[in-house]
Amino acid sequence: MKTLKHLSRLTLLLLLIGFTSCSDDDNGTTPPPEEGVNIVEAAQATAELSTLVAALQKADESANNDLVTALSGDGPFTVFAPTNQAFNDLLAQLDGFDSLEDFSSQQLQDLLAVILTYHVVADAALSTDLSDGMSLTTLQGSSLQVSTQGGVFIQDATDVAAEVTTADIEVSNGVVHIIDKVLLPQAIIDELADIILVPITDLAIGNENLQNLVAALTEADGDLPTVLRGDGPFTVLAPTDAAFEAFLDGAALTDIPVDVLTNVLLNHVISGEVTSEDLVGLGSGYTSTLATGAGDQNVSLFFDTSDGVTFNGGSTVVTPDVKALNGVVHVVDAVIDIPNIVDHAIANPGLTSLVGALTDGGNTTFTDLLSNEEETFTVFAPGNDAFSAFTNPNSNDLNAILSNHVVVGAAAFSSDLTNSYVNTAAEFDVDENLSLYINTDDGVTLNGTSNVVMADIVASNGVIHTVDAVIDLPTVVTFAAADPNFSTLVQALTELTPSTDFVSVLSAQDGAGSDPFTVFAPTNAAFDALASIPAEADLVPILQHHVVAGANVRSGDLSDGATATTLEGDMITINLPGTGDNIADITDGAGNPGIGIDAVDVQAVNGVIHVVDTVLIPDTSN
After folding, report:
1. Helix pair 84-93, 50-59: axis angle to 10 deg
2. Buried b (16+ CB within 10 A) or exposed e, 597-612
3. 314 CB contacts (<8 Å, ≥6 apart)?
4. What would the pLDDT profile of 417-436 be if each residue is shown by its tens digit?
5. CA–CA separation, 229 vs 59, rounded Å?
6. Per-residue pLDDT tens for 104-156?
7. Which of 73, 266, 518, 605 has the smallest number of CB atoms closer than 10 Å to its CB?
8. What is the pTM of this model?
């Protein structure tokens, strides 16, 4: 608990006051006291005033005070009696005070007595005796102002008035009015300026170095000054006046669109109370602000405590842990703008290898693309360790590999991901984008090889998921191995046909074999429909009958009656439109019609896969 200083003036004031009644003329006619309980006894008998009784007793632990005896005397007095909750609110406002037991020294007990005497007025005044604008002189020596607009309110030296919630409890030595706030005189506020916590807005108003922030809060939408006076708790990263001047760069606040200014300000507000000690304990990582980014999700904020405390790589805490009534404020030296995908990548030291690869040789293709605020992206970002481990075994173009980590046109958050295929920015050919298989059976795995280790880093123009492995350009084999719907097909291509190296054949790319391939891939259910899976001698030609070599035939290339010769040697025929829910039908080499194509255009770097619901059988008579 902080040490209270400079209380001698208040203590002297207390000693000089005493409990002497003013004349009966001071506050109107005093009603005759009722027989029965006095003020103290009435408080003791009222459950919601038990903390007031405890406060009187705590103040009396100082030899300088005898408040219980005084308020049990003849009076008459008017007492504005704070509820238990009112005292709880006061304790929350005093930095380092958790209970009345913290008033543990004579100096502090005398301070408490000063506060309590500010609630007592000589003479007895019923609510009918109180008029709007009336001034009441307390036994502490300072005045209270009365307002009767919409109820009965008692204004102390703060900005918030106390409301009389229960009026006119008449006792033998006066009258008690129950109020919902502990009243504070200016003398107490002045003495405890470094201890009394105020809401974040008022803290900023009182700081001469945060006036541009106050002006910005006032200019923005959503009545942010009122929001930041609310319950919270909030953590606010408060830019200095110099920080705002640098951000504005000669412009005026009114030159910034109000919605943009509002979102930038909200990017400095974190829900909950986060101290610098909390951040240092974590080292580095992400939290969310109240600003909104892609998909109306809360924007991510990167913090790093390796050298001080910085946010998004560009804003440093210069004054940490300024306590407020409803949270904590960290003063920062730069305004934190809403980050886009590129900003996030640059700010995170764990992504330096990615940033280096994206910008190698002065390349601006990716930074231009991923800074586009008119588009939305999902980026699967490999960490530094992932880049260190990547050997590029197929000598693929690095730019194509990097493009294979970017989904254009959608911000796919982890909660939206399912087992499915999406298209990346990498291309097989113009407007023929490579596919990416997402599996969510156990975490999030991409193309069967790369796992999401940190999800949902929200930017203004999309979302980043960091991954533990570089996602190389996929072959048709990659998708067959990654997609659990093809597990029987993979078994057939490997374990059940050991004499034929289907994996090597179908992994060929860049003209190194019979690529590109068009593969009609039967699902597990298609194999299950067979009476049994044939032995190797019969299975090999069946598998070959699902592959067309030397052509990347996408769905847009299919036409009714089109034929294609498979690796096995027999032709298959395409029928459009498909029957039922089929995208198209196939008649296989054995003449079996109505084989359904259920999904199309799973695009690999060396061909394309179309999913079929039945195993294709070649002509066994030739």
Report:
1. 60
2. bbbbbbbbbbbbbbbb
3. 334, 336, 347
4. 999 999 999 999 999 999 99
5. 31
6. 999 999 999 999 999 999 999 999 999 999 999 999 999 999 999 999 999 99
7. 73
8. 0.83
